[in-house]
């Protein structure tokens, strides 16, 4: 049975703004309403133990969806179930079974030592003493928080705080963990450490993870599946590999010629940039192969060096957002 | 209930620990709060340097009003005053953090951001109350003692109810707390003078709409054994507890309505 | 900090929010601009040629100070509302004080009511409570770069404060007075010149209060607990400025002391000039008293500033 079920989920906000021309106190009275569909009929299911990347450009409806999954927001239509509960009606009950980490806000007590925050959360979440001790010991070891336990949170670095926040979100053994930009602003080493922790958590404890991020490395490293949303609608749901195949057909061959030359003409390619003796040829996987292109170039000009640029996953996603990437069908 | 109370105390203790790290600052602010409220009382003294009775109330009687008003208000400010920051929380989206925890929303807000330096102002109110008792001659009866003892509690509850209802409006317009302050902070000024000082329209507002007159004015009439210059019937003097409870019930309803609104609009 | 006096309690709550909005919203605007950067539009270019770049710079800073607050209309509206309500409450207490009495300390009821509403309006103009912009940059360390800019740091902030005060005089000062005048019988200056003197006195009040706030902010260089000190200072000048009760109503010795201290220059002097309590030489004397304190306190602030700058150079903040 799916642990997260979302069926035709909708959220409409009615935004009021001062009517054009209204000023001062009048502006408070004369307002016009406008309907905004933040989430517009989204459906997906997540099975226990899955690790899913939930991505989309800013304002796509990501956080609105997450808010409905956690019970912060009440949906305007459709169905949500998390761990068998309807979040908006069973907010408090559900809160004990999920964990949430916001990359940009800490849930720890700013002026208190880290261990005090953990201790308070234990009582807020009513975690049995035995389980609390075992979990705390385990996460402190995994995230190497031992030396930091007595440090006030305000003195922790961003990375240390994130590790603290992760522990805080996990002490009550949540079945589902929502992560909102967990690696934002962190340096490469810390990012990697957090990623490997999450992978291990998912592997060993079977925690279901739903991850929103702008960092495609997070997705690539952690998520077997990604859900892409834009303008409140689901535009992709599947594996990363399948997405590359479907949307990421364009590759670029960069050639260095012996000397500057007019753009090389090879069937099935397009020269997108020329810089002295260096030229960039774009071609689609479906039209031709790299070998054919290289052979054709070598036949027309004196080649000194070459590299092939694979599309970055970020580019693919960006192109999906911008609507530029029509799925490449071999029709 | 008992478990929630224990958690509340645990959270308050945590904040005492947190604020105690800035001990010197804390002590200074405590003293500052004491001094600032003392200055308010100086104004009362200046007024009474020109006359023996203000609208039929002696210095001791006004000091009694002042003391009871400040104790009730400062206690409310200490425990629910942090709701002034709700608008900011709503605007920044920090209210979401409250909604993802397995506890009541109002409970969590009231258990956080407690500014303990208000205790300084309460201490000052206690001093003024002592001063008041040195001037007025109360003919103590069991009833008067009981009413006196309930006054800080009922006054606190009335202020708290008004504060909570006011704070709820920030779910609709995040900036409204500034207006609400005119009945919370303004209410403290209002209740430190007798109600019969004010114009009839203001009085009606603060008896019937925002029932701050029950914080101390009506009970004080009983304790000080005064006739009401406004001519309210005698039973009104004993209504404060009922008003306080009714107001709290209304406040909690309105709060829930506000949270529901927030959860459907997310604004 | 939430200042704790009754007026402060309600005003600062409003203004604290306004401040946090200002701070979050336009952090850059609160900092000295490096010379000749963005925002110096065409009128400025013209002005520069006319009056010289030095003056034009501070003129622009003042303009900015004005405009910064103009953005927060809702906060202004709320502030006016609370100022006015407090004006009503204070006014009724004063009416009770005057019951059956004609004049106290040379003030009749009408004078006192006028005094009440003018002070409610001046509250934000002289910004008695809770101004910690400089202290915040000291805490954040940003002040080090601000010091490095080629401008007179104190004058920069004075200019911006004059701009701010002008905004508050128009939008926070006039409305409570007008509303008060609708409900109560208030007094307007009989002599047209009084307006001019009042305006002059009001800006002197801004200068004195600024000089004070400037030093209080700089204290953050040496004191960790500048806010604690600030709350005590606020207690002192709330009373001694004549904000809570007109100084004319103070008993004998206290009145003499209050009139000599600089705090009366914040509120009491301009309002007494508005009420035409000071005429002829006395009027000039009142203005000289304000000017004297303004210069003395600004000079003291100058000294504090150079001590602070030395501290930055020696210890790096």
Task: Write up this protein.
Chain A has 331 residues and is of the alpha/beta class. Chain A has two domains: 241 residues, Rossmann fold, CATH 3.40.50; 61 residues. Helices cover 33% and strands 30% of the residues of chain A. Chain A has a six-stranded mixed sheet with strand order 5-6-7-3-8-9, sandwiched between helices. Chain A is globular. The two termini of chain A are 37 Å apart. The C terminus of chain A is likely disordered. Chain B contains twelve helices and two strands; from the N terminus they run ααββαααααααααα. Chain B has a two-stranded antiparallel sheet. In chain B, a hairpin with a 2-residue loop joins strand 1 and strand 2. Chain B starts with a helix and ends with a helix. The N terminus of chain C is likely disordered. Chain C is mostly helical and 317 residues long. A two-stranded antiparallel ribbon of chain C has the order 1-2. Chains in contact: A-B, A-C, B-C. Chains A and B meet through helix 2, helix 3, strand 5 and helix 4 of A and helix 1, helix 5 and helix 12 of B.
Keywords:
heterotrimer, A: 331 residues, alpha/beta, six-stranded mixed beta sheet, four-stranded antiparallel beta sheet, 11 helices, C: 317 residues, 13 helices, 73% helix
In short:
Helix content of chain A is 33%, strand content 30%.
Strand content of chain C: under 5%
- Give the overall pLDDT of chain A as a whole number: 86
Order of helices and strands of chain C: HHHHEEHHHHHHHHH
Q: Per the principal axes of the C-alpha atoms, what is the gross shape of chain C?
A: globular
| CATH topology name of the largest domain in chain A | Rossmann fold
Q: Give the number of helices of chain C.
A: 13
| Oligomeric state, counting identical vs distinct chains | heterotrimer
Strand order of the largest sheet of chain C: 1-2
Strand content of chain A: 25-35%
Radius of gyration over C-alpha positions of chain C, nearest whole angstrom: 20 Å
CATH class of the largest domain in chain A: Alpha Beta
Give the terminus-to-terminus CA distance of chain A: 37 Å
Give the biggest sheet of chain A: 6 strands, mixed
Uncertain regions spanning at least 5 consecutive residues of chain C: 1-44
Low-confidence stretches of chain A: 326-331
The number of E-state strands of chain C comes to: 2
If you compute it from the alpha carbons, what radius of gyration of chain A comes out, rounded to the nearest whole angstrom? 25 Å
Supply the CATH architecture of the largest domain in chain A: 3-Layer(aba) Sandwich
Report the end-to-end length of chain C measured between terminal Cα atoms: 24 Å
């Amino acid at each position: 049975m799916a642990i997260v079920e979302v069926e035709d989920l909708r959220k409409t906000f009615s935004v009021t703004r001062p009517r054009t021309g209204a000023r001062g106190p009048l502006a408070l009275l004369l307002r016009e309403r406008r309907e905004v569909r933040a989430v517009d009929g989204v459906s997906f299911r997540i099975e226990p133990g899955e690790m899913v990347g939930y991505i989309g450009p800013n304002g796509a409806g990501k956080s609105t969806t997450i808010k409905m999954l956690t019970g912060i927001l009440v949906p305007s239509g459709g169905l949500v179930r998390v761990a068998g509960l309807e979040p908006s009606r069973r907010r408090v009950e559900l809160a004990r079974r999920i964990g949430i980490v916001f990359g940009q806000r800490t849930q720890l007590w700013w002026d208190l030592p880290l261990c005090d925050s953990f201790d308070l959360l234990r009582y807020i979440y009513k975690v049995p003493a035995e389980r609390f001790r075992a979990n705390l010991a385990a996460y402190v070891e995994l995230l190497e928080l031992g030396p930091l336990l007595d440090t006030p949170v305000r003195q922790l670095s961003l990375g240390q705080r994130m590790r603290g926040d992760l522990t805080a979100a996990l002490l009550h053994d949540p079945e589902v963990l929502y992560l909102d930009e967990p690696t934002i602003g962190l340096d490469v080493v810390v990012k990697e450490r957090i990623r490997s922790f999450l992978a291990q958590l998912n592997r060993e404890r079977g925690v279901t993870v739903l991850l929103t991020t702008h960092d495609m490395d997070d997705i690539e490293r952690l998520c077997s599946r990604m859900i892409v949303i834009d303008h409140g609608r689901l535009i992709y749901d599947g594996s990363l590999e399948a997405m590359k195949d479907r949307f990421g057909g364009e590759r670029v061959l960069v050639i260095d010629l012996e000397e500057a030359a007019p753009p090389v003409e090879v069937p099935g390619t397009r020269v997108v940039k020329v810089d002295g003796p260096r030229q960039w040829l774009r071609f689609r996987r479906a039209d031709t192969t790299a070998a054919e292109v290289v052979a054709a170039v070598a036949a027309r000009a004196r080649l000194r060096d070459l590299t092939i640029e694979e599309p970055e996953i970020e580019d693919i996603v960006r192109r999906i957002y911008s609507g530029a990437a029509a799925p490449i069908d071999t029709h | 209930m008992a478990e929630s109370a224990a958690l509340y105390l645990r959270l308050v203790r945590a904040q005492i620990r947190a604020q105690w790290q800035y001990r010197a600052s804390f002590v200074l602010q405590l003293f500052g709060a004491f001094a600032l409220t003392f200055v308010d009382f100086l104004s009362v003294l200046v007024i009474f340097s020109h006359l023996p009775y203000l609208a039929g109330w002696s210095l001791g009687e006004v000091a009694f009003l002042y003391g009871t008003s400040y104790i009730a208000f400062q206690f409310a400010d200490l425990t629910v005053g942090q709701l002034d920051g709700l608008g900011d929380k709503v605007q920044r989206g920090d209210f979401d953090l409250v909604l993802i925890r397995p506890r009541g929303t109002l409970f969590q807000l009231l258990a956080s951001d407690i500014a303990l330096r208000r205790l300084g102002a309460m201490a000052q109110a206690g001093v003024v109350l002592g001063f008041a008792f040195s001037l007025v001659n109360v003919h103590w009866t069991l009833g008067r003692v009981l009413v006196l003892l309930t006054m800080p509690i009922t006054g606190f509850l009335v202020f708290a109810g008004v504060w909570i209802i006011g704070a709820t409006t920030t779910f609709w317009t995040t900036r409204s707390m500034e207006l609400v302050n005119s009945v919370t902070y303004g209410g403290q000024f209002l209740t430190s003078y007798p109600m019969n000082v004010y114009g009839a329209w203001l009085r009606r507002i603060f008896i019937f709409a925002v029932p701050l007159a029950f914080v101390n004015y009506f009970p004080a009439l009983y304790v000080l054994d005064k006739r009401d210059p406004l001519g309210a019937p005698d039973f009104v003097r004993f209504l404060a507890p009922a008003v306080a409870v009714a107001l709290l019930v209304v406040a909690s309803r309105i709060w829930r309505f506000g949270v529901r609104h927030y959860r459907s609009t997310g604004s | 900090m939430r200042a704790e006096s009754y007026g402060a309690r309600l005003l600062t709550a409003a203004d604290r929010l306004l401040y946090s909005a200002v701070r979050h919203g336009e952090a850059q605007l609160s900092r000295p601009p490096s010379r000749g950067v963005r925002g110096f539009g065409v009128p400025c270019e013209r002005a520069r040629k006319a009056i010289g770049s030095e003056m034009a710079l501070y003129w622009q800073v003042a303009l900015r100070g004005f405009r910064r607050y103009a953005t927060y209309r809702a906060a202004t509206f709320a502030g006016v509302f609370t100022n006015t309500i407090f004006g009503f409450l204070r006014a009724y207490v004063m009416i009770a004080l005057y019951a059956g009495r004609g004049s106290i300390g040379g003030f009749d009821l009408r004078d006192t009511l006028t005094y009440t509403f003018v002070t409610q309006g001046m509250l934000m103009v002289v910004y008695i409570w809770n101004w910690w912009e400089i202290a915040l940059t000291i805490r954040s360390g940003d002040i080090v770069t601000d010091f490095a800019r080629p401008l007179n740091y104190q004058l920069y902030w004075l200019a911006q404060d004059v701009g701010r005060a002008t905004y508050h005089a128009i939008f926070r000062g006039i409305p409570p007075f007008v509303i008060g005048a609708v409900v109560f019988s208030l007094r307007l200056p009989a002599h047209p010149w009084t307006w001019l003197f009042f305006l002059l006195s009001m800006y002197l009040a801004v200068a004195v209060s600024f000089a004070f706030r400037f030093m209080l902010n700089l204290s953050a260089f040496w004191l960790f607990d500048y806010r604690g000190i600030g709350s005590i200072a606020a207690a002192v000048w709330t009373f001694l400025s004549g904000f809570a009760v007109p100084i004319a109503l103070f008993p004998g010795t206290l009145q003499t002391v209050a009139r000599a201290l600089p705090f009366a220059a914040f509120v009491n002097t301009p309002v007494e000039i508005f009420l035409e309590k000071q005429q002829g030489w006395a009027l000039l004397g009142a203005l000289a008293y304000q000017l004297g304190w303004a210069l003395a306190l600004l000079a003291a602030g100058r000294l504090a500033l150079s001590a602070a700058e030395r501290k930055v150079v020696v210890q790096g903040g």
